[in-house]
């Protein structure tokens, strides 16, 4: 049977999955890194959708997620989540990063989707140490998938080889292939 968690090295904006997760900031109005890449690939419709959510709900705090349409992307929807900024580990960063993954999975399920791709949230501009962040990502998703059959495919999309190796190692330990 195909493993439900897989790692891919590459650009998340090119994927044909139901949902792509964006590592956004609380403003939801775009930025650099993967956020910038997703907005560039999706086109202006995505920013409009984000502005609407922003008007209705205000800022998105760390650990929370919102869903929008996906503009020109091949994905059906984008879930924008806000990871924690790394301050050394004493400011609930681990819990907030878990929340970002878990709330994105719940939102994808609530909207009836079965496949989702995550970038390595918080490990770029926000400075979260990559090994610790990868462990939280794999453990949180793996714990969530137990007894929940809806999500058939969860992809961890890594931009660099170092991050991809971290995930590959963790998935092998979990008994998942990559
Ligand atoms: N596909 C997959 N992963 C990517 C891509 C891509 N196209 N581009 C970058 N990454 P970051 P953060 C990886 O900085 O740390 C933004 O300005 C990257 O190598 O994008 O959560 C937001 O607006 C890294 O491993 O997100 C926020 O202000 C990972 O994505 C802030 O950055 C996350 O890096 C969020 O910071």
UniProtKB/TrEMBL annotation:
CDD domains assigned to the protein according to its UniProt record, in alphabetical order: Macro_OAADPr_deacetylase (cd02908)
Top EC group: hydrolase
SMART domains: A1pp
Family matches, as Gene3D superfamilies: Leucine Aminopeptidase, subunit E, domain 1
EC nos: 3.1.1.106
Binding site for substrate: 11-12, 25, 33-35, 122-126
Keyword set, alphabetical order: Hydrolase
GO molecular function, one term: O-acetyl-ADP-ribose deacetylase activity
SUPFAM superfamilies linked to this entry: Macro domain-like (SSF52949)
Keyword Hydrolase: yes
Residues of the Macro domain: 1-175
Domain of life per record: Bacteria
Pfam short name (any one): Macro
Positions annotated as active site in the UniProt record: 35 (proton acceptor)
Alphabetized InterPro entries for the sequence: Macro_dom (IPR002589), Macro_dom-like (IPR043472), O-Ac-ADP-ribose_deAcase (IPR024900)
GO BP annotations listed: purine nucleoside metabolic process
Reaction equation(s) it catalyzes: 2''-O-acetyl-ADP-D-ribose + H2O = ADP-D-ribose + acetate + H(+); 3''-O-acetyl-ADP-D-ribose + H2O = ADP-D-ribose + acetate + H(+)
Family assignment from sequence similarity: Belongs to the MacroD-type family. YmdB subfamily.
Its job: Deacetylates O-acetyl-ADP ribose to yield ADP-ribose and free acetate. Down-regulates ribonuclease 3 (RNase III) activity. Acts by interacting directly with the region of the ribonuclease that is required for dimerization/activation.
Oligomeric form and interacting partners: Homodimer. Interacts with RNase III.
Stored NCBIfam families: PRK00431.1-1 (NF001660), PRK00431.1-6 (NF001664)
Protein name in UniProt: O-acetyl-ADP-ribose deacetylase
Organism: Kosakonia arachidis
Annotated gene: ymdB
């Amino acid at each position: 049977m195909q493993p439900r968690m897989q790692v891919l090295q590459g650009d998340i904006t090119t994927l044909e999955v139901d949902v792509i997760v964006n590592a956004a900031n609380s403003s939801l109005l775009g930025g650099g890194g993967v956020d910038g890449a997703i907005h560039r690939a999706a086109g202006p419709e995505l920013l409009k959708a984000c502005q609407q959510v922003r008007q209705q709900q205000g800022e998105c705090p760390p650990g929370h997620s919102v869903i929008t349409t996906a503009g020109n992307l091949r994905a059906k929807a984008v879930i924008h989540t806000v990871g924690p900024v790394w301050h050394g580990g004493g400011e609930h960063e681990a819990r907030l990063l878990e929340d970002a993954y878990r709330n994105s999975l719940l939102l994808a399920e609530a909207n009836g989707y079965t496949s989702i791709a995550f970038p390595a949230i918080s490990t770029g501009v926000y400075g979260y140490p990559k090994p610790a962040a990868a462990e939280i990502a794999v453990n949180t998703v793996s714990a969530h998938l137990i007894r929940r059959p809806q999500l058939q495919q969860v992809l961890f999309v890594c931009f660099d080889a170092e991050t991809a190796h971290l995930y590959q190692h963790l998935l092998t330990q979990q008994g998942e292939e990559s």
